[in-house]
Each structure stands twice: as structure tokens, then as C-alpha cells.
Design brief:
By secondary structure, the chain is an all-alpha fold. 71% of the residues lie in helices and 0% in strands.
């Protein structure tokens, strides 16, 4: 009886969540529907709510060529390879740097330890837009323009990741590391065999967040790349839009949008449990 009453009280909340999910998903659904029709149907403003007959043609054209009658863009396959390389490098690089920095701050004793930690923490107040000019100058002097190293290296250092892993490491029992040291384990052995296995949920959570962050980057790739072959998905989609809404192959743009959304959505879905578990552990 109590279980039935509880289920009845949850109905309004479930209905609200269902309506909110439908509202959020409707624009994505319309983009998918638009990607299955021809440009003339979309241009007339009478696009139906059911898929059309151009699904295969539009997706193949956007994937292989990225160009149409009124669109001249980079092939989606090129944009996705560039963005995937950039997102993976940024995510893995941020995790690597953050783990080492947090491990040193938490488990090592050295002069000015807290000073260096707060120095790292203060950089949270300096977003990319503030340091964009010196970052570009350094990358240009090092001949990193139009290179994957230039796309990823300046984005790898993360004060956010260092702060999160510091909180995770502080919650670990110190007795485990002390026992490992008594058995002769060095700092790297302790990190690899004890700290990292206990931090798997947090590692997965930060990987998902940083992967999506790297995938959606726009400002830095816009400055550091000048050729079409280095376009990421954010840059490529904007260039496909052009300047005139009336002269636009919206079917190709929507097909490219759906394909570029598939990768980050898949990563979030595949690592959803680890993401939630990692965020809960970080918050403890």
C-alpha cells in the first residue's frame, strides 16, 4: 500500500521530467528531420515532422565533401578527426598534469607547498580570453600555428582538475600509502598501484567533462588554425553557415550537426555511471 502511494506521488515529478526532456530533445529531432529532406523543402518553411527520402544522400555528401550548391565547407570526416584528436589530447593531458600536481601537493612535503597550490588555484580566475594574446604569441614563436600540438598543448594545464583531484586524494586513507612505503614502494609505485585505482571514478568523470570541453572549443582553434584541413567541428559548422541564411543548404548543415553531436553524446552515455559516481565522490 505504501509503495503504491509512493508511486502515485512520483507521477507529477516523472511527468515534469518527461515534458522537460521532450522540450530539450525536440530541436535535435527537428535537426535530424531537416537532415533527411532537400534544401527546397526546408527553404519553403513547410518541413514535415517525419523523415524524408534524402537521409543517405545528405549524410554521405556532408561526410565526404561538406559542400553543396550553396555551401562550401570542410568534410565532416576531416572536422571530426581534428576535433577527436584535440578532445582526446586535451582530456588525457589535463588528467595527466592534474594528477601529478595534486599528488605532489597532497602527499609530498616541500617548502612553499601551500603557496604553489594557491598559485595554481588563482589561475582559475584567468580564463582563456584573458591570456589569449600571450598564449598565441608563445605558440606562434614556437611555430605551433596550424599544428595539433598548438591546438592542444596550451589547453592541457588545468587548475580545475588539480583542485578536484586534490579533494579526492585528501579523502584517501593515509595508512595505505604508509603501508606501501614500509613494503618498499616508491612514490610512482604508490601512485600507479594505490592512488590511481582508487581514483577511477574521478578520472572517468574528469575525462568526460574535459572531452566535451575540448570538443566544443571555438576561440582557440579559430586563432591557432588558418587552413581548412585543420578545422574542428565548431569552426567547420560556423563556416558552413556562411553569412546569408536565405542562401543555405540547411539539409547539409543539419546532417553535419547531427553527426558531430554523436561523438560527445556517445562518450557521455557510455561513461554515464562513472561520471555520476565520480562527481559524487569529488563532492564528498
Amino acid at each position: 500500500m505504501k509503495k503504491a502511494r509512493k508511486n502515485l506521488t512520483n507521477i507529477p515529478a516523472h511527468l515534469f521530467l518527461a515534458v522537460a526532456a521532450a522540450l530539450l530533445a525536440f530541436p535535435v529531432y527537428m535537426a535530424f528531420i531537416g537532415s533527411t529532406h532537400d534544401a527546397a523543402t526546408i527553404g519553403r518553411g513547410r518541413m514535415p515532422l517525419t523523415p524524408g527520402a534524402y537521409l543517405g544522400q545528405n549524410y554521405v555528401q556532408a561526410w565526404a565533401y561538406g559542400t553543396g550548391e550553396r555551401v562550401s565547407g570542410t568534410p565532416v570526416r576531416v572536422m571530426m578527426v581534428n576535433s577527436l584528436t584535440m578532445a582526446l589530447a586535451i582530456a588525457l593531458g589535463k588528467i595527466f598534469m592534474s594528477v601529478l600536481a595534486a599528488y605532489a601537493v597532497v602527499f609530498f612535503r616541500f617548502p612553499l607547498r601551500n603557496f604553489f597550490f594557491w598559485l595554481i588555484f588563482i589561475t582559475l580566475m584567468l580564463p582563456l580570453e584573458v591570456r589569449i594574446i600571450p598564449s598565441y604569441k608563445v605558440a606562434s614563436d614556437l611555430k605551433l600555428v596550424n599544428t595539433f600540438l598548438g591546438l592542444t598543448l596550451p589547453m592541457m594545464v588545468s587548475a580545475t582538475g588539480t583542485l578536484l583531484f586534490r579533494q579526492v586524494f585528501l579523502s584517501m586513507p593515509k595508512e595505505l600509502l604508509e603501508a606501501a612505503k614500509i613494503d618498499g614502494a616508491g612514490p610512482l609505485r604508490c601512485l600507479w598501484s594505490i592512488v590511481l585505482p582508487l581514483s577511477k571514478p574521478s578520472l572517468a568523470a574528469l575525462f568526460v567533462v574535459m572531452f566535451v570541453y575540448g570538443w566544443n572549443q571555438y576561440l582557440w582553434p579559430l586563432l591557432i588554425t588558418t587552413t581548412r584541413q585543420m578545422d574542428t567541428v565548431a569552426i567547420g559548422l560556423v563556416r558552413m553557415l556562411g553569412t546569408s541564411e536565405s542562401l543555405m543548404d540547411w539539409n547539409l548543415v543539419m546532417a553535419a550537426t547531427i553527426m558531430t553531436m554523436a561523438v560527445p553524446v556517445s562518450v557521455v552515455i557510455l561513461l554515464q555511471r562513472w561520471l555520476v559516481k565520480g562527481l559524487v565522490e569529488i563532492g564528498k
